[in-house]
Amino acid sequence: MSREMFSPLATGSTIGILGGGQLGRMLSAAASRLGFKTHIYCPEVGSPAAQLAAYETVAPYEDLDSVRDFAESCDVVTYEFENVPEFTAKAAAVGSILRPGPKALATAQDRIAEKTFLKNTAKVPVAPFEQIDTIFDLKRAVKVIGYPCVLKTRRFGYDGKGQYVLKGEDDIAMAWETLGEQPSILEGFIAFKREVSIIAARGVNGEIASYPLIENVHKNHILHTSTAPADGHSGKAKAFARYILKELNYFGVMGIEFFQMESGDLIVNEIAPRVHNSGHWTQNAGCIDQFELHIRAITGWPLGHIQLKHGVQMTNLIGRDIENWDTHAREPDSFLHLYGKKEPKPGRKMGHVNRIIYVPRGQLNK
Amino acid sequence: MSREMFSPLATGSTIGILGGGQLGRMLSAAASRLGFKTHIYCPEVGSPAAQLAAYETVAPYEDLDSVRDFAESCDVVTYEFENVPEFTAKAAAVGSILRPGPKALATAQDRIAEKTFLKNTAKVPVAPFEQIDTIFDLKRAVKVIGYPCVLKTRRFGYDGKGQYVLKGEDDIAMAWETLGEQPSILEGFIAFKREVSIIAARGVNGEIASYPLIENVHKNHILHTSTAPADGHSGKAKAFARYILKELNYFGVMGIEFFQMESGDLIVNEIAPRVHNSGHWTQNAGCIDQFELHIRAITGWPLGHIQLKHGVQMTNLIGRDIENWDTHAREPDSFLHLYGKKEPKPGRKMGHVNRIIYVPRGQLNK
């Protein structure tokens, strides 16, 4: 049913965004730079993204008539979170063109589908994994994978939620119960040296662009800092990104998270079919940022040049971190980005700071 | 009647903007980066700025009830064009805090008030000028000023409109008739070497920040390119900017245009109490841009650091220039900014391109 569009969308066209969070907000700002209007679909009134959009639909994702009406008013529809329900995505794809497509969404939503795709189709290294539907599956799988290992829900995990590390047989019952006795995945525990990621995009003509490798540090399971470029060469991560984007026939920006081993080898941890928190530093790197890159990719525009002019470190402002806004606003070589959220609840992403870091020119765009 | 506010406005507050053009649009995007909402007041539906705002009032500037309601819904009100009618500005200042204040607006709207202020209060060099209310004034004034000289309407001139160059006595009648026999100013014609400008801001605590000197080239009386930093030292222009901002007790960003003589001396041509087309390059200079600087200044925030990381040349896209968007979108080290306007009429500003230029580091922030 879905129409396809390969010629570039004219400036002035309308881009629909499913989801009203900060990613939608920053996508909307980027779309405006290219003269596009945005239409935000979000169940809550006055969302961060709707504050910065030409049109807003406030309705539940389950209201498929609203989704279809919304999609029909847009020239292309995208999303800012990967947990868009399958029926919502399908309704959007009937009313308009959905980019990235439903296949990318289905793959990223389900850890079994994701790992199976990565291993068998994209042929990139992943941790050993087993599908878990019952406690008996779990008991069998720990023998294959060994300890330590990690039980994760198949769906809706984020920021370390829906995960349980098993160190021995005694943990099995507790892990299964804690995760709610639901369809899960058991993965081998990766003793990584560091966490890195890459932000890559693919345009409608197959053109691919990637920023350099990013080093990520988490605090309480939430991303704390992203530093780009990370030490080391980006070549292998970029190659893995190419395989993944191509095999999904993907249009748009993707965030790909890796574990890097002591040996330097990379293991793909997960993919996010959207702009990604570890790519916010691109806003102040002197090149086209991930938000504009996504807009260009889904509208059929040339991806453009994404060569860094200097390094950047991004630090998330979580919860009450935002109270230090005044200090950050005075820092030299720093850029403050706040999301317009009302309450600084613990764990809530309220904004971020991008700080310029100086890196020898030859090491900038490896 | 107007309340004053000197403590910083909390993120999440609402900034009102009188005017819905591209300057309002880019102010709105900048406000969003600091977590502010914007409310656009504009007589036309779906203006470039309203496409990117949380709230929109569509009403004439003469509808003072609407202006007051609008202002009362905002924590501070600013404007994106200097021809805001005086009664509109006053109504806004009753309903909220207007920044820059009505005095700056009144001064910039009337070339006689402007030149008198610049000469007598700010004590900066201006061209010789005479007030013209009748053709008899004009006949007398040409004898004082000499030829060539320029007759300009006191109000509502822009992009070279409302100006007539007189080369001799024969031009007097035609000049007076062409300008519509209205209150005018006769100015000495400045044989300048080049046109330069400066973008400066003053915060509520008196803090002042200026970007370096900018060289401007016009085509058909419309700004064509702005290049920063301009050759030469910015010191004198910055000093003049300080006098002007201070004497107006100004809060916000101001654009100041100069003629530069062969000797290097600067003559102030005009001031614009708002963000300025010759400051659009700041969006891609690796520092806080003029739009965010204005938002910071009017909300009582610290102005922050505005040190350039490299030079930039801005080129306006006028009318059908926008048809080359695809070429500009592919250029390395270039950033495209489009305004979401419907028709590319001749002379209409449709967007601009910022191109990075490399300048020795020591010459960047003179």
Verbal overview:
The structure is a homodimer of 366-residue chains. Chain A has 366 residues and is of the alpha+beta class. Chain A folds into three domains: 14-98, Rossmann fold, CATH 3.40.50.20; 128-188, Dna Ligase, domain 1, CATH 3.30.1490.20; 194-363, ATP-grasp fold, B domain (D-amino Acid Aminotransferase, Chain A, domain 1, 2-Layer Sandwich), CATH 3.30.470. Helices cover 26% and strands 27% of the residues of chain A. Chain A has ten helices and 17 strands. In chain A, strands 9, 10, 11, 12, 13, 14, 15, 16 and 17 form a nine-stranded antiparallel sheet that branches. The first copy, chain A, has a four-stranded parallel sheet with strand order 3-2-1-4, sandwiched between helices. In chain A, helix 1 links the parallel strand 1 (14-18) and strand 2 (37-42). The relative contact order of chain A is 0.12. The mean pLDDT of chain A is 95. At the A-B interface, helix 1, helix 10 and strand 16 of A face helix 1, helix 10 and strand 16 of B.
Topology overview:
The structure is a homodimer of 366-residue chains.
Chain A: E1 14-18, H1 22-33, E2 37-42, E3 55-58, H2 64-72, E4 76-79, H3 86-95, H4 102-109, H5 111-121, E5 129-132, H6 135-145, E6 149-153, E7 163-166, H7 172-178, E8 184-188, E9 194-202, E10 208-210, E11 214-219, E12 222-228, H8 235-247, E13 252-260, E14 266-272, H9 290-298, E15 311-318, H10 325-330, E16 334-338, E17 349-357
Parallel strand pairs in A: 1-2, 1-4, 2-3
Antiparallel strand pairs in A: 5-8, 6-7, 6-8, 9-10, 9-11, 9-13, 11-12, 12-15, 13-14, 15-17, 16-17
